[in-house]
Design brief:
Elements: E1 30-32, E2 35-37, E3 42-45, E4 48-51, H1 57-76, H2 83-99, H3 110-128, H4 137-143, H5 148-164, H6 170-173, H7 206-209, H8 212-221
Antiparallel strand pairs: 1-2, 3-4
Helix pairs in contact: 1-2, 1-3, 2-3, 5-8
Length: 239
């Protein structure tokens, strides 16, 4: 930075340490000139809050809080809005937040994703102007909103589709490779992806077993085949 005449803004500089398996606690600091940058438990990057365990609980909590505040404001003027206008507002200011970078939540337990699902349920009730404890399954089906977990699954498969067809970023394409059987098999024409090997077997760190390189090939290969023996994946239907 000195060579390019740049000055570090310490107010916007954070140090996030991601420990590996059985890694001892380290008291890390970085000295930059006369300033010291100490580790933090969470750090924000492009609107996503990363924590040092990659559990994304802080990011989910922040997203939930923001969405609840937005739903509260929309609810205050719900009587002056039509159902269609309410749906557009919810999709613009709430659903878009639920979907933002949601592929990072791939593989998280359902209990961790539950706060986001409760937000989607509340949004569906608001669109139809129904009480708090109304059943939401028919509402979501009527709105053509798939559940939050399925939306995360869907986004991951869309990324896998672009990677498999060479239309995604190079760093995504490098994570997945086409499956090539050792001998001539029917699976050779199914356009499957090579499953990533897990180092250390079942004791492999959970944060890594739910990575894109692990789950994307697995979910892609589980997709049903079309009549042409090719995988089908479209980017429509999420809403």
């Amino acid at each position: 930075m000195s060579a390019h005449h740049l000055k570090l803004n310490l107010d916007k500089t954070e140090l996030l340490f991601l420990p590996g398996k059985d890694c001892p606690t380290l008291n890390l600091t970085i000295n930059i000139g006369t300033s010291v940058v100490s580790p933090t438990q969470t750090a924000r990057n492009l609107g996503v809050i990363l924590d040092n365990n990659l559990s994304f609980t802080a990011n989910i909590a922040a997203t939930t809080h923001c969405c609840r505040y937005t739903l509260y404001n929309i609810r205050r003027m719900r009587l002056q809005l039509t159902q269609k206008a309410t749906q557009l507002l919810v999709q613009a200011f709430v659903t878009s937040r639920l979907d933002y970078c949601n592929s990072l939540l791939t593989g998280l337990p359902t209990c961790v994703i539950l706060p986001l699902q409760l937000i989607q349920n509340a949004a569906a009730r608001l669109v139809f102007n129904l009480p708090t404890f109304s059943h939401t399954t028919p509402l979501l089906r009527s709105l053509h909103w798939i559940p939050v977990t399925a939306r995360i699954h869907f986004k991951t498969l869309v990324l896998a589709y672009h990677a498999a067809n060479g239309s995604g970023p190079s760093y995504i394409q490098d994570m997945v490779k086409p499956y090539t059987p050792a001998c001539a098999l029917r699976s050779a024409s199914a356009k499957q992806l090579a499953a990533a090997a897990l180092r250390g077997g079942p004791k492999f760190p959970s944060a890594e077993t739910r990575g894109f390189a692990i789950l994307a090939p697995k979910w892609w290969n589980e997709l049903p085949l079309t009549s042409g023996q090719q995988k089908a994946c479209t980017s429509s239907g999420a809403d």
